[in-house]
């Protein structure tokens, strides 16, 4: 199975160790979503922007671990999304984003370069 990561799970980011057992397939940009800072990690919601991501092939154990990390308390919901590498799971943020900073570039790695 495949997963799309767009924030702290990306290469060289704080939680990239969760992807150690995954196979990086490539970079991807998803349209129709907006990226928000939730503090030390981001969330995406459906919207009018684009989000820069990485796509990985992962096993069921890794997916279960990510579900435990991302789905506790209903913070995220997994949705299947098309990529050039085949359908992949995307964690979509489920809480209100009012008052949260939108990362207009859609690139979590570049977030500190935005005003």
Automatic annotation (TrEMBL):
Pfam families: GGACT (PF06094). Gene3D superfamilies: Gamma-glutamyl cyclotransferase-like. Keywords: Transferase. GO terms for molecular function: transferase activity. Residues 3-109 form the Gamma-glutamylcyclotransferase AIG2-like domain. Belongs to the gamma-glutamylcyclotransferase family. This is Gamma-glutamylcyclotransferase family protein YtfP.
